[in-house]
Amino acid sequence: MSEEPSPTDAGSTDQLTHTDEAGNVQMVDVGAKPDTARRAVAEGHIHLSESTVEAIETDTVEKGDVLATARVGAVQAVKHTWETIPMCHQIPITNIDTEFRILDDRVVLSVAVETTGKTGCEMEALEGVTTGLNVVWDMVKAAEKDSKGQYPGTAIENVHVVSKEKHQIS
């Protein structure tokens, strides 16, 4: 459910909502919008070596509990999105759910964010995923480095919005 028409929907880039007619950046005025219940889910994964994934799964990473630390990082990022994404509004977060799935060569993180307000929360969900996965990387980077100190097989990938919903408040 889209709040504003996208450039593709409108058939023109003249419909961009964060710029004025002169091309100046502006925050969208959402003051006249009604409050609605909103939920967004984002997901992404970090590709890791199988031995690193096993260490995460068995909680034997030297720095500590990787998933617990990443969960805290994801929650903090959601709550502070308005401070890092310039045109995001500060919104009241009513709920955050994080879910990790461990596969043979990756850790998948889903972040669901809920709010009641005048604007969506998909950027908050995306910030939660990217920061949560960055925390995973930070926690396991010693195990992921090759002999030259590089990370040839480590990658954060496929970060995207899975779903976005809004419902009128009764």
TrEMBL record:
Name the InterPro entries for this protein.
Mo_CF_biosynth-C_arc, MoaC, MoaC_sf, Mopterin_CF_biosynth-C_dom
Q: Known catalysed reaction(s)?
A: (8S)-3',8-cyclo-7,8-dihydroguanosine 5'-triphosphate = cyclic pyranopterin phosphate + diphosphate
Q: Which branch of life, at top level?
A: Archaea
Q: Name one GO molecular function term.
A: cyclic pyranopterin monophosphate synthase activity
Q: Where is this region: Disordered?
A: 1-29
- The EC number(s) attached to this protein equal 4.6.1.17
The UniProt annotation places substrate binding at M87, C88, H89, M123, E124
Pfam families in UniProt: MoaC (PF01967)
Molybdopterin cofactor biosynthesis C (MoaC) domain boundaries: 27-166
The metabolic or biological pathway listed in the UniProt record of this protein is: Cofactor biosynthesis; molybdopterin biosynthesis
An example GO BP is: Mo-molybdopterin cofactor biosynthetic process
- State the UniProt keywords alphabetically: Lyase, Molybdenum cofactor biosynthesis
Which residue positions are annotated as catalytic?
D138
User: How does it associate, per the subunit comment?
Assistant: Homohexamer; trimer of dimers.
Family that this chain belongs to: Belongs to the MoaC family.
Task performed by this protein: Catalyzes the conversion of (8S)-3',8-cyclo-7,8-dihydroguanosine 5'-triphosphate to cyclic pyranopterin monophosphate (cPMP).
Please give the name of this protein: Probable cyclic pyranopterin monophosphate synthase
Q: Which organism is it from?
A: Natronocalculus amylovorans
What does the record give as the organism's lineage? Answer: Archaea, Methanobacteriati, Methanobacteriota, Stenosarchaea group, Halobacteria
